[in-house]
Amino acid sequence: MHFSAFRSSQLSMGFSFSRVTFNFLMFVLACIAIGNSQPMLNSVEQESVYRVLESLNSDVPWRSLFPDDLCSSAPHGVVCDYATVTGTLNIVELSFGYVSDYNSNPTCSTNSTLFDPSLFSSFLHLRKLFFYECFTQQPFFLPDLSLFGLGLEELVFINNPTLFGSLSDNIGNMTSLRRLIITGTSVSGKIPIGFGELTNLEEATLSRNSLTGDIPGNLSNMKKLKVLDLSQNGLTGKIPGTIGGLENLLKFDLSSNRFSGEIPETMKGLRALEFLDLSENSFVGGGVPLFLSNMSKLQGVYLSGNELGGVIPDIWENLSGINGIGLSRVGLVGEIPVSMGVCLRNLTYLGLDNNKLTGGVPTEFEKLGLLSELNLHNNNLSGRVPFSLGFLGKVGGKLRLEGNPELCVDEGVIKSLYNVKTCNEVENPRSALVDGTSSSTRIGDRICRLLILFGVLLW
After folding, report:
1. 19-63 pLDDT per residue, tens
2. Fold adopted by 92-392
3. CA–CA gap between residue 214 and residue 113 (Å, rounded)
4. What's the superkingdom here (predicted)?
5. What's the chain look like in SS3?
6. The CA-based dihedral angle spanning residues 189, 194, 196, 198, taken in that order and rounded to the nearest 10 degrees
7. How far does Cα 152 stand from its chain's mean position?
8. Furthest-apart CA pair in the chain: how many Å?
9. 169: number of Cβ within 10 Å
10. Where does residue 225 fall: left (phi above 0), alpha (psi -120 to 50 degrees), or beta otherwise?
11. For a Cys-Cys bond, which of 339, 351, 427, 448 suits 326, CB 3.0-4.6 Å?
12. What is the pTM of this model?
């Protein structure tokens, strides 16, 4: 081959080779760029977030402050997550309303509302929706919960007094729901039967609303439920016997409603229960439930304001962990069992006032070293109050004894603090020196009493 032809052939091959190499390198770089690129939030969800933010607080220029992809730069409370199946970024959490300086969610204005609740149907992967004090002036009606997506795990409305409406009948379709908190609102109506079909629900707090009617009887399906708080509503009827099937329940609060009938024996199945509050209802008869002795993990039991009647049962041996007992205004008769003072060493509050209790105050109450409030007023207790000056000084004004005509305190106790009479002295006051009591001891006692009075006045 001629040299020039050969050289031309070499140059041609080299050029072709270089072009292939160049193209290959560009391909590799493109692949790397694609692999490193961050998926963006789709435009539908992005626009829906803007519109929700503008509804809740139109005074903030949300689009100017956060002009870019909201999954890369968004206000606190707007959370995205990557879906490996679809390869997309989606909104998974929306939290609104100022809670604290440590949790700076987007604030809601005084006239905030949601003009188009159907915007939430755009968030197909939403797992948590939270509103704190967002609806306080303008009315907002709770939409059909299915709008929030069947994958929703947490729905929280706290202190939204102008939130109206009722729980939808198809709430049972939200099988992923783990936390349902609607408290401090104007939500009314009945608790739908579908509520009992939320088999994955762990917390149901529906307190401080305007709910009426009775509790659905299918609660036993909710095996994972740990908190059931329906307090401060207008609920009526009886506690369904199926409540005993909630074997994982830790907190059960029905206080300040209009429930009636007897407290069901089936509640003995709530062996994991730590907090029980049935106070301020219309439960009658049956006395203080004996099955409480089976609830060895109880830390607080409050039954005040129900006409239960009967005596205080001697069931406290297995309940040493209790720190609060409320049995005020329940129609109790008979004496206070000594075992309360012997067994309840963790007790900080005991309310036995406004009953018909008789007999003396157990001396063993002096051993309740953590006790800080003891209400015994308005009973028929009698005899000497057996507490030392040290105990009286510790409890101070939170010891209520008035309204027990036959109860008395020693002469050294400032009786005006407790509105009870002084016990009669057997010996002659002049015999103080004869029985060995020195003048310095008497002076010390007086100083101690003055210090107690000073401490009570400060309290």
Report:
1. 445 444 444 433 443 344 568 899 999 999 999 999 999 999 999
2. 3.80.10
3. 31
4. Eukaryota
5. CCHHHHHHHHHHHHHHHHHHHHHHHHHHHHHHHHHHCCCCECHHHHHHHHHHHHHHCCCCCHHHHCCCCCCCCCCCCEEEEEECCCCEEEEEEEEECCCECCECCCCCCCCCCCCCHHHHHHCCCCCEEEEECCCCCCCEECCCHHHHCCCCCEEEEEEECCEECCCCHHHHHCCCCCEEEEEEECCEEECCHHHHHCCCCCEEECCCCEEEECCCCCHHHCCCCCEEECCCCEECCCCCHHHHHCCCCCEEECCCCCCEECCCHHHHHCCCCCEEECCCCEEECCCCCHHHHHCCCCCEEECCCCECCCECCCCHHHCCCCCEEECCCCCCEECCCCHHHHHCCCCCEEECCCCEEEECCCHHHHHCCCCCEEECCCCEEEEECCCCHHHHHHHHHHEECCCCCEEEECCCCCHHHCCCEECCCCCCHHHHCCCCCCHHHHHHHHHHHHHHHHHHHHC
6. -120
7. 21
8. 147
9. 13
10. beta
11. 351
12. 0.83
Are the beta carbons of 324 and 373 closer than 8 angstroms?
no
- Report the pLDDT value the prediction gives residue 123, as an integer from 0 to 100: 93
